[in-house]
């Protein structure tokens, strides 16, 4: 871990990779585009899983597991879907040395196999709604892989629901994007913009795709989670119907929604700095590290005092490490724990013990304080709460400061040529205007924010591209 | 769920499948040999995962994630290993419609890719021991698939460790088989025999394979978990070495160990009966069901009383469902909850409320008792503890009663022709004797139990097959 991290200013892309490899979050795998998630990275992912899984259960969702192997023909049953995923599918052709009769796709997502199965499970209105989720690995051919952000195999959860009414499916999809917002803002401390995708950016086969969009430190957008109102397309393609209260056969409506290990990338690129990883306390596998400063003559005294603090904090339910390794200087240890993102560091030596004090530093601001030994429990707990909200506020301020209302095409070009962040601008709804901006500036509509569209009375003004009457307020940005 | 379950006596195999499908634990997938794990089954697997994961963490093991896709050439680096797994490997040949340069194996197990990666992670004695685990899906071509027991894709955990000394790896492998014994006996309530596999039955590439073997209700053995001392084979094949305290390059020693969704099969075949699933309370997603018995006139009174009981039990940390569905008779509800294996059922009607009593039934024995309303908390908690230990004792008694000491070849033949269970018999150590019994009787050595071999002073007597001097005491049985 002795190499230096490239600064963000010098090379943001390289900085991102340096953080991941030097903080030992992930490693390149022998197959191009695949990654190994190392224990330090997986521990964070595991914390995300637990929190999110509890939220799903709160919403009445149950976990299950569907096979990875999908008959290739299933993908072809829904035409938008096959068009969207075919170029990305990995295919199994042999088993035990023999060629298979039909090639099998490694799931790029599981709508098709799940709706094939729902046909067996859904017969009567009593079987609805059906709310399920799976934690799984998925596979997509990826031309420009990037650790956590775009990998050939990645880990995610995919929720799939079946409903008796179109509005119920639509509302459930909206409900789940709100659950993602709650999770990403409150646990990852990443502010997001919630909205609906434009037609050209939605999920293959969806009626509507809702997304949460975050801003990274380089001002690019990152799509952190999506939820899809699938209407009756999958129910229709897989011939799923149910008998309603009147005994009539009715169509079944679907939603699906997912977040992935991509969130690890969002987490890193939102909070970390040139010294290494910065973690919100709720997700930090270690929240507090205690570094005792001792020499041979006072080792026992100092370690004893440090152990007492460690057990006091652990009893409060905090995740604490006492770093009593020998043969390393305190300065070396400080740098290591900063690199891996432990939110709070406590230092103590003999002098501190004699004066009944401790030194406490926060990873987010770097601020050091001398505090009274007896109040360590309260102070550290308060600090962790404060760091969690400070990280959110810093990210929120950055997003707000780098979001600008843009009124016409020239201003839009100028904004992005000057390295702009999010442009808030009107759009007529025509895909050609979107396409033009994408080609010109590599900028896309991230979403049409709910709070600027659905919750307001009509849109006034003109499209930022063509100048025609606007129909939507949109967030435009470069993106990951 | 209205179909009848085939009785065990009529057809044990069909009974097993009926339990799984009617209790909605799993379903057949469109690809032959694959399965869908339904919410009722997955909830049990999730409970197993949480318990086992805590045990791993107690042993200092950290979770991580390695890719599913392994270059085919990796499997060929360790010769025993490739021989063992080649006939079972599924191969990806295409990605995004294009043929790959090198075919990729879907991991049948991950030793090869993990030791390829360990080469980067292990340099100095400071990097050892390395103790990691992953929860993952694996793939093996399977000619005779069977839900949970043998499926083309299954879920498991695989632990992999690297050590500086051969004895340390050996001892860690032994430690983990003991962790599995603890887990399977204490949580699944399944008694097991812990021992070492014979040469011909061990894992491809292992020096020693340790196993836990359980007896199902049809007296066949089921291997419930294995742990392998891999010696220096994988370290050698992947050129992993470390610098020891003296600065010299030394070989690295390995262990690996795993349990899978096969445990679901063991759980079903150990405890369940002709009425459906029987679950040990520690693994039951619902531990207590309350069935209120009411008519229109007293509905409110009865439901109110039932709700109070439900919240009292939930406050004690129990997993409780109040079944207040309308339009079903109590008898129909009883049968449903028996089918899905809820350990304790509480019934109450207006008469019970008036007399301050309740009816409590246990799923394991079927015994019903009238108890005082005010002691419901204590009684139900005690009952759950009692059911957990009773299920273990029943299974232990069955195993003991169906294990017999066998002294010579004729007796061995007779024992298995008479539908015997486990034969405890001496063995000379020659694979030919093993082979002969396998061909003749479809009986194999399950393992050489530790308590009959390592913990005793020498083996006396003669081999049950050839009559030569015995070297080991072995458990012989038909198996899944």
Automatic annotation (TrEMBL), chains A, B:
Its EC number is 6.1.1.15. The keyword ATP-binding applies. Residues 41-280 form the Aminoacyl-transfer RNA synthetases class-II family profile domain. One of its GO terms (molecular function) is proline-tRNA ligase activity. Keywords: Aminoacyl-tRNA synthetase, ATP-binding, Cytoplasm, Ligase, Nucleotide-binding, Protein biosynthesis. It catalyses: tRNA(Pro) + L-proline + ATP = L-prolyl-tRNA(Pro) + AMP + diphosphate. This is Proline--tRNA ligase.
